[in-house]
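task queued by scheduler; priority normal; single chain, no ligands, no partner chains; default sampling; output format set to structure tokens
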Amino acid sequence: MSVYVALTRGGQPWEPLYVEAVNHEKCIGCGRCYKVCGMDVLSIMGVTEDGELVAVAEDDDDDDGEIDRKVMTVKYPENCIGCRACAKVCTKGAQTHVKAQVMSA
């Protein structure tokens, strides 16, 4: 399997790494990764006491007590451009990234 490596404008090798998953055990739901991503890759979800993921409105203040906490999820992985901005702002290292594969002609 070949991987894709490009050059930066300064001539340095750069390898895009695409977000594949968010570890819900590590994620604290702070939203930093969501805010820094301009490609609409991530989405915030609620986690119930039973560990089930449920949709949460962005303005939901959780007055109903249905969710135990919030975490990020990868909603649109196809939108990821491999910049790793999400990983750079995550203090918990919650994201998993994968290398780009080169398509055969």
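post-processing summary
- The two ends are 14 Å apart (CA to CA).
- The first helix runs from residue 32 to 36.
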